[in-house]
Amino acid sequence: MTNASIQRAGIALLIGLSLFFRFYNLEEKLLWHDELATRVFAAGYTVDEWHEALFTGEIFDVSEVTKYQHHNPQRSVMAAIRGLAEDDPQHPPLYYVLTRVWVSVFGDSIATLRALSVLFSLLGFPAIFWLACEMFDDKRTAWMSVLLYGVSPFFILYAQEAREYALWAVLILVSNASLLMAIKKGTARSWALYSLITVVSLYTSFTTASVIITQLIYLVVRERLRPTEVAKKSFVALAVSAICFVPWVITLLDHWDAFQVSMKWSKIINIPNSALLRILGHNFSRTIVDFWVEIVDPMGWAVMLAACAVIAVASAHSARKHLLLALAIAVPIGMLLIPDLAFGGIRSISMRYLTPSWLAVLLALAHWMSTQRVAAVVVLAVCTISSATNAPKIAVWTKATSFHLPEVADIVNAASEPLVVGNMERHNPGNLMALSARLKPGTKMQFLDTKAEEHYVLPRQFGTVFLYSPIGDYRKAMEQREGVTSEILIEDHFLDLWRIQ
Fold first, then answer.
1. DSSP label at 394?
2. How far apart are CA 297 and CA 301, in angstroms?
3. Residue 57 vs residues 33, 114, 343, 451: alpha-carbon distances, Å
4. What ranges make up the beta strands (E) of 345-443?
5. Phi-psi bin for 137: left (phi > 0), alpha (psi -120 to 50), beta?
6. pTM, rounded to two decimals
7. What rounded mean pLDDT belongs to the chain?
8. Which helix (H) or strand (E) segment is 61 a member of?
9. What is the C-alpha separation between 194 and 177, in angstroms, rounded?
């Protein structure tokens, strides 16, 4: 075989693996806390609705719990949008409206729900090819970016996530590509396309703000603060986008309290600055290598540092070729990391919010690798092995809040006549609902508000009673009242499971 034939076969193999990894095991992977919110919303129910129905202290069969995850054809899309505005206004409605329509047409299984994200992720192939061509005018770099995006473990994991991030990644790519095209062509049509994509992206994620700020800095530097034709047209395009997004901004302001509650975690949790930087380094490496949930041993550290070094070299090489690429890596990270370092918080550790930076990292790597054959083979191989390692896993690091739910489900399902008792604290409502999707038929569940848990009376008719993340003082008081003891079975940062002896 000639070198050209080998290259074509390699490209075909990697693209085939990219497709396989995205569709593999969609149904079996853990439905976690955040995806549960998507599923319930797509089914047509609001948070208040299922909270009020379930957190009554009544004992429910698991089938009565999971019904809130199945499509209710009597609920309208507009009612669903109003529910999203009231419960989760930090998430603009576009993706969630699309999921609502999707499940009404194709069914509400977990695999079907996630398949929409997979399809969005496939649009990323032509999108990143287009952006690479606009940025570097080099087909070799464009094809390399397609291959990297295809087997990147981070982008495969989020291709299988029933959340908006796969769609948002595509829109980020198209937004940057359409901006560069509009600057080059200067036509009204090209600027209108950029404005439209910006609006759609805003209605997909508020974090699009980091993309717009990156583009604004690029335009200011490029035009040197002069009122050029490009400056005027870009201002008009962004102004039109902003006006079109005003309705959801008003919605957010009307439900500001709900927004603050939903984002409270990002500000009140503080970790050392050294830990923030370590996690950021790990997240950089995860764009191309992903074998560890946490870095705890010398081998993990060595691989992480090697990956970060490769990314640093590629970024330094490629960023000099295009200012927008350099800004796209640095600005989104700086917008989250600097407040964390200065004022505390963990805004910057959620890798998904830095998707614009990770896409730019892939482009930088692709441009560098297009002239570094050995490095290209090694990086693509590591990406592929990482994705192959993640593929059969039921729970991966992106599902941290619910990571141990499969183990919880296995323990409960192995018990005789089980009852699972949970409360409304922290992530418990969403995790309990997600757990219900993995429990065997006939399992019973009991949901308590805080006052009910304080005075909880243990039911005696069940073979095994499990307490899901009980409040410690209430659990101890219940043990004394009821003359029982409890044994802890699973514990992590987000949940703990106890069995009544």
1. S
2. 6
3. 22, 32, 41, 10
4. 418-423
5. left
6. 0.95
7. 93
8. strand 59-61
9. 9
